[in-house]
Protein backbone atom coordinates (compact mmCIF):
# COMPACT_ATOMS: atom_id res chain seq x y z
CA UNK A 1 0.00 0.00 0.00
CA UNK A 2 2.91 2.37 0.64
CA UNK A 3 3.94 2.61 -3.00
CA UNK A 4 0.40 3.26 -4.19
CA UNK A 5 -0.21 5.91 -1.55
CA UNK A 6 3.02 7.63 -2.53
CA UNK A 7 2.06 7.59 -6.19
CA UNK A 8 -1.33 9.05 -5.41
CA UNK A 9 0.22 11.83 -3.38
CA UNK A 10 2.60 12.57 -6.26
CA UNK A 11 -0.34 12.88 -8.62
CA UNK A 12 0.78 9.96 -10.77
CA UNK A 13 -2.74 8.56 -10.91
CA UNK A 14 -4.56 11.88 -11.21
CA UNK A 15 -6.33 12.52 -14.50
CA UNK A 16 -7.84 15.82 -13.39
CA UNK A 17 -4.58 17.73 -13.76
CA UNK A 18 -2.84 15.64 -16.40
CA UNK A 19 -2.46 17.22 -19.81
CA UNK A 20 0.16 15.16 -21.60
CA UNK A 21 -2.13 14.14 -24.45
CA UNK A 22 -3.62 17.58 -25.00
CA UNK A 23 -2.75 19.89 -27.84
CA UNK A 24 -0.74 22.82 -26.51
CA UNK A 25 0.45 26.10 -27.96
CA UNK A 26 3.95 27.30 -27.15
CA UNK A 27 7.17 28.69 -28.56
CA UNK A 28 10.21 26.61 -29.44
CA UNK A 29 13.77 27.48 -30.31
CA UNK A 30 16.74 25.39 -31.35
CA UNK A 31 20.28 24.38 -30.50
CA UNK A 32 22.81 24.88 -33.27
CA UNK A 33 23.85 21.20 -33.15
CA UNK A 34 22.27 17.98 -31.91
CA UNK A 35 25.54 17.28 -30.06
CA UNK A 36 24.60 20.09 -27.66
CA UNK A 37 22.16 17.66 -26.05
CA UNK A 38 24.82 15.04 -25.28
CA UNK A 39 25.49 16.61 -21.91
CA UNK A 40 21.77 16.80 -21.22
CA UNK A 41 20.14 16.31 -17.84
CA UNK A 42 18.74 12.90 -18.83
CA UNK A 43 22.25 11.44 -18.81
CA UNK A 44 22.11 9.75 -22.22
CA UNK A 45 25.52 11.16 -23.16
CA UNK A 46 26.87 10.27 -26.60
CA UNK A 47 24.00 7.81 -27.10
CA UNK A 48 21.60 10.75 -27.48
CA UNK A 49 22.52 11.68 -31.05
CA UNK A 50 21.64 8.15 -32.20
CA UNK A 51 18.07 8.41 -30.89
CA UNK A 52 15.13 9.30 -33.12
CA UNK A 53 17.35 10.24 -36.09
CA UNK A 54 18.71 13.14 -34.05
CA UNK A 55 15.28 14.75 -33.60
CA UNK A 56 15.84 15.63 -29.95
CA UNK A 57 14.57 18.20 -27.47
CA UNK A 58 15.21 19.79 -24.13
CA UNK A 59 11.86 20.06 -22.35
CA UNK A 60 10.43 22.64 -19.95
CA UNK A 61 10.62 21.53 -16.29
CA UNK A 62 6.87 20.79 -16.29
CA UNK A 63 7.47 18.26 -19.10
CA UNK A 64 10.87 17.05 -17.92
CA UNK A 65 9.19 16.08 -14.61
CA UNK A 66 12.41 15.75 -12.62
CA UNK A 67 13.59 13.09 -15.07
CA UNK A 68 10.39 11.07 -15.48
CA UNK A 69 9.92 12.79 -18.86
CA UNK A 70 13.27 11.57 -20.20
CA UNK A 71 12.66 9.59 -23.38
CA UNK A 72 9.13 10.97 -23.84
CA UNK A 73 8.11 11.80 -27.41
CA UNK A 74 6.14 14.74 -28.76
CA UNK A 75 4.75 15.73 -32.14
CA UNK A 76 5.54 19.40 -32.81
CA UNK A 77 4.52 21.61 -35.73
CA UNK A 78 4.82 25.34 -36.26
CA UNK A 79 1.70 27.44 -36.77
CA UNK A 80 2.75 29.17 -40.02
CA UNK A 81 1.35 26.89 -42.73
CA UNK A 82 3.26 28.74 -45.43
CA UNK A 83 6.48 27.93 -43.61
CA UNK A 84 5.82 24.51 -42.09
CA UNK A 85 4.26 21.19 -42.96
CA UNK A 86 0.99 20.07 -41.39
CA UNK A 87 2.65 16.99 -39.91
CA UNK A 88 5.62 18.67 -38.26
CA UNK A 89 8.15 16.38 -36.59
CA UNK A 90 8.39 13.94 -33.69
CA UNK A 91 11.03 14.67 -31.03
CA UNK A 92 12.41 12.76 -28.07
CA UNK A 93 13.25 14.45 -24.76
CA UNK A 94 16.90 14.08 -23.80
CA UNK A 95 17.45 17.20 -21.69
CA UNK A 96 15.87 19.71 -19.32
CA UNK A 97 15.16 23.15 -20.73
CA UNK A 98 15.66 26.06 -18.36
CA UNK A 99 12.48 28.10 -17.99
CA UNK A 100 13.33 30.55 -20.78
CA UNK A 101 9.87 31.23 -22.17
CA UNK A 102 9.83 28.20 -24.47
CA UNK A 103 8.46 24.71 -23.88
CA UNK A 104 11.19 23.05 -25.97
CA UNK A 105 14.65 23.70 -27.33
CA UNK A 106 15.00 21.47 -30.39
CA UNK A 107 18.04 20.05 -32.10
CA UNK A 108 18.65 21.88 -35.37
CA UNK A 109 17.65 18.74 -37.28
CA UNK A 110 14.28 18.59 -35.52
CA UNK A 111 13.71 22.33 -35.91
CA UNK A 112 14.42 22.18 -39.64
CA UNK A 113 12.19 19.09 -40.03
CA UNK A 114 9.09 21.17 -39.23
CA UNK A 115 9.57 23.25 -42.41
CA UNK A 116 8.27 22.68 -45.90
CA UNK A 117 11.00 21.48 -48.24
CA UNK A 118 11.84 24.89 -49.71
CA UNK A 119 11.62 26.74 -46.36
CA UNK A 120 14.29 24.96 -44.31
CA UNK A 121 16.83 27.77 -44.40
CA UNK A 122 14.13 30.30 -43.60
CA UNK A 123 13.00 28.53 -40.43
CA UNK A 124 16.60 28.04 -39.31
CA UNK A 125 17.20 31.78 -39.68
CA UNK A 126 14.12 32.49 -37.56
CA UNK A 127 15.48 30.50 -34.65
CA UNK A 128 12.20 30.89 -32.70
CA UNK A 129 8.67 30.04 -33.75
CA UNK A 130 5.14 29.45 -32.43
CA UNK A 131 4.04 25.82 -32.41
CA UNK A 132 1.41 23.30 -31.42
CA UNK A 133 2.53 20.09 -29.75
CA UNK A 134 1.10 16.93 -28.24
CA UNK A 135 2.45 13.85 -26.47
CA UNK A 136 2.74 10.75 -28.67
CA UNK A 137 3.95 7.16 -28.16
CA UNK A 138 7.65 6.60 -28.82
CA UNK A 139 8.68 4.29 -31.63
CA UNK A 140 12.13 2.81 -31.12
CA UNK A 141 11.99 0.68 -34.27
CA UNK A 142 11.38 -2.62 -32.51
CA UNK A 143 14.09 -2.13 -29.86
CA UNK A 144 13.32 -3.69 -26.49
CA UNK A 145 13.48 -1.87 -23.18
CA UNK A 146 17.13 -2.03 -22.11
CA UNK A 147 19.28 -1.05 -19.16
CA UNK A 148 22.86 0.15 -19.42
CA UNK A 149 25.08 -0.49 -16.42
CA UNK A 150 26.79 2.82 -15.68
CA UNK A 151 30.55 3.14 -15.23
CA UNK A 152 30.04 4.32 -11.65
CA UNK A 153 28.66 0.89 -10.66
CA UNK A 154 30.91 -1.07 -8.29
CA UNK A 155 30.10 -4.71 -7.69
CA UNK A 156 32.48 -5.07 -4.75
CA UNK A 157 30.65 -2.24 -2.96
CA UNK A 158 27.19 -3.57 -3.89
CA UNK A 159 26.49 -0.37 -5.83
CA UNK A 160 24.55 -0.46 -9.10
CA UNK A 161 23.57 2.44 -11.34
CA UNK A 162 21.57 1.83 -14.52
CA UNK A 163 20.36 3.94 -17.41
CA UNK A 164 16.99 3.17 -18.99
CA UNK A 165 16.91 3.00 -22.78
CA UNK A 166 14.14 2.51 -25.37
CA UNK A 167 11.23 2.76 -22.96
CA UNK A 168 8.58 3.02 -25.68
CA UNK A 169 4.86 3.61 -25.51
CA UNK A 170 3.45 6.79 -24.02
CA UNK A 171 4.33 6.09 -20.43
CA UNK A 172 6.67 7.04 -17.62
CA UNK A 173 8.59 4.65 -15.38
CA UNK A 174 8.06 5.91 -11.85
CA UNK A 175 9.22 2.98 -9.68
CA UNK A 176 11.96 0.37 -10.19
CA UNK A 177 12.38 -2.63 -7.87
CA UNK A 178 15.07 -5.29 -7.99
CA UNK A 179 15.46 -8.72 -6.39
CA UNK A 180 17.95 -11.56 -6.55
CA UNK A 181 16.44 -14.31 -8.68
CA UNK A 182 14.80 -16.83 -6.35
CA UNK A 183 14.41 -14.36 -3.48
CA UNK A 184 11.31 -12.47 -2.34
CA UNK A 185 13.26 -9.59 -0.76
CA UNK A 186 12.54 -6.79 -3.23
CA UNK A 187 14.53 -3.57 -2.95
CA UNK A 188 13.86 -0.26 -4.66
CA UNK A 189 16.12 1.87 -6.81
CA UNK A 190 16.15 5.65 -6.53
CA UNK A 191 16.20 8.04 -9.46
CA UNK A 192 19.71 9.49 -9.35
CA UNK A 193 18.90 11.97 -12.11
CA UNK A 194 17.22 11.88 -15.49
CA UNK A 195 17.10 8.36 -16.91
CA UNK A 196 19.64 7.05 -14.37
CA UNK A 197 18.62 5.05 -11.29
CA UNK A 198 20.81 3.55 -8.57
CA UNK A 199 20.89 1.42 -5.43
CA UNK A 200 23.54 1.23 -2.68
CA UNK A 201 22.81 -2.30 -1.44
CA UNK A 202 22.12 -4.25 -4.62
CA UNK A 203 21.78 -8.02 -4.08
CA UNK A 204 24.35 -10.39 -5.57
CA UNK A 205 23.60 -12.97 -8.21
CA UNK A 206 21.34 -12.60 -11.24
CA UNK A 207 18.87 -9.77 -10.77
CA UNK A 208 15.19 -9.49 -11.70
CA UNK A 209 13.72 -6.01 -12.24
CA UNK A 210 10.13 -4.85 -12.19
CA UNK A 211 8.97 -1.44 -13.41
CA UNK A 212 5.86 0.50 -12.40
CA UNK A 213 4.70 2.45 -15.46
CA UNK A 214 1.88 4.91 -16.01
CA UNK A 215 -0.73 3.03 -18.03
CA UNK A 216 -4.42 3.54 -18.62
CA UNK A 217 -5.79 5.89 -15.97
CA UNK A 218 -3.50 4.52 -13.24
CA UNK A 219 -0.52 2.23 -13.84
CA UNK A 220 0.80 -1.31 -13.76
CA UNK A 221 3.87 -3.43 -13.10
CA UNK A 222 5.99 -4.44 -16.08
CA UNK A 223 8.04 -7.61 -15.59
CA UNK A 224 10.97 -8.03 -17.99
CA UNK A 225 11.54 -11.44 -19.54
CA UNK A 226 15.31 -11.20 -19.14
CA UNK A 227 17.41 -10.70 -16.00
CA UNK A 228 20.64 -8.87 -15.32
CA UNK A 229 23.27 -11.63 -15.18
CA UNK A 230 25.33 -12.21 -12.04
CA UNK A 231 28.47 -11.19 -13.96
CA UNK A 232 27.06 -7.84 -15.14
CA UNK A 233 29.70 -5.47 -16.43
CA UNK A 234 29.98 -1.70 -16.46
CA UNK A 235 29.24 -0.01 -19.78
CA UNK A 236 27.24 -2.94 -21.17
CA UNK A 237 23.64 -2.58 -22.41
CA UNK A 238 21.34 -5.45 -21.38
CA UNK A 239 18.17 -6.21 -23.34
CA UNK A 240 15.20 -6.75 -21.00
CA UNK A 241 13.31 -8.75 -23.63
CA UNK A 242 10.10 -6.68 -23.58
CA UNK A 243 8.61 -3.68 -25.33
CA UNK A 244 6.46 -1.15 -23.50
CA UNK A 245 3.56 -0.12 -25.72
CA UNK A 246 1.12 1.15 -23.09
CA UNK A 247 -0.67 4.48 -23.29
CA UNK A 248 -1.27 6.64 -20.25
CA UNK A 249 -4.88 7.77 -20.65
CA UNK A 250 -5.04 11.21 -19.14
CA UNK A 251 -7.82 13.77 -19.08
CA UNK A 252 -7.22 16.86 -21.20
CA UNK A 253 -9.89 19.23 -19.92
CA UNK A 254 -9.52 22.09 -19.10
CA UNK A 255 -6.05 22.37 -20.64
CA UNK A 256 -7.02 21.12 -24.12
CA UNK A 257 -6.17 23.74 -26.71
CA UNK A 258 -8.29 22.23 -29.43
CA UNK A 259 -8.04 19.17 -31.72
CA UNK A 260 -5.00 18.28 -33.80
CA UNK A 261 -6.34 18.94 -37.28
From TrEMBL:
InterPro entries linked: Expan_Lol_pI (IPR007118), Expansin/allergen_DPBB_dom (IPR007112), Expansin_CBD (IPR007117), Expansin_CBD_sf (IPR036749), RlpA-like_DPBB (IPR009009), RlpA-like_sf (IPR036908)
Q: Give the family per the record.
A: Belongs to the expansin family.
Q: Which UniProt keywords apply?
A: Signal
Q: Does the keyword Cell division apply?
A: no
Q: Which residues form the signal peptide?
A: 1-18
The name under which this protein is listed is Expansin-like A2
Organism, per UniProt?
Fraxinus pennsylvanica
Expansin-like EG45 domain location is 39-143
What sequence ranges are listed for the domain Expansin-like CBD?
A: 158-240
Q: Which GO terms describe its biological process?
A: anatomical structure morphogenesis
What Gene3D superfamilies does the record tag this protein with? Expansin, cellulose-binding-like domain, RlpA-like domain
Q: What Pfam families would the database entry show?
A: DPBB_1, Expansin_C
Amino acid sequence: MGIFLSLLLLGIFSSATACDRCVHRAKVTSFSKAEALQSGACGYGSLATGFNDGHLAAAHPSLYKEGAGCGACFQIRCNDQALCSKQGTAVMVTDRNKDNGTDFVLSSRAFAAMANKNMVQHILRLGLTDVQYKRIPCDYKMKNLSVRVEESSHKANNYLAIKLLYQGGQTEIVVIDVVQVGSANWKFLSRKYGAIWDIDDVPSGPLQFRFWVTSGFDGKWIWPENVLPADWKNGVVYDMGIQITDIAKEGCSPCDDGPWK
